[in-house]
Write a structure and sequence with these properties.
alpha+beta, Nuclear Transport Factor 2, Chain: A, about 35% strand, Nuclear transport factor 2 family protein, NTF2-like_dom_sf, DUF4440
């Protein structure tokens, strides 16, 4: 009987510690996923600011199912989205210098992220441009990719 009481006491002491460890592990994993997405956005900014639109697109899902919603409507597909970027920003002057401000980054599911942000293009010769965006991310084959972009 004493052994049972000791076992119950030890379990009641260690169970919350083990449970806390699990929560901490999940928070660390979430922080890792958050850092990964923010690093992708930083890389995209650097690529844009270097005039490398093709590299900027590496953050997007290379699929015909990619969606981009903008002022001109909905674009479906990676290649069509890339073509629109190149058409809308044909020169370094038109591309300007990009800056992202991330306002919200949530994970509604372990393999899904939702980002709300603001962009600003500094373009001294033709006028600055700015707006807001929402990005839906999916973790596919262990890589975070933008599957839907709504920018205005």
């Amino acid at each position: 009987m004493n052994r049972i009481i000791v076992a119950v006491l030890l379990t009641s002491i260690w169970w919350p510690v083990l449970g806390q460890h699990t929560i901490e592990s999940e928070q660390k994993e979430l922080s890792k996923e958050r850092r990964t997405i923010l690093q992708i956005l930083e890389r995209q900014t650097a690529d844009w600011n270097s005039g490398r639109v093709d590299k900027f697109m590496n953050g997007y899902w290379p699929s015909d199912s990619l969606t981009f919603v903008g002022k001109a409507g909905i674009t479906y597909g990676y290649e069509a989205t890339l073509a629109n970027y190149k058409k809308r920003y044909p020169t370094r002057v038109s591309m300007g210098t990009l800056k992202f401000d991330i306002l919200q980054l949530d994970f509604p599911a372990p393999d899904v992220a939702y980002v709300i942000g603001r962009f600003h293009l500094t373009r001294p010769k033709i006028g600055d441009a700015d707006g807001y965006f929402t990005l839906l991310w999916r973790k596919l084959n262990n890589h975070w990719l933008i599957v839907s972009d709504h920018s205005n």
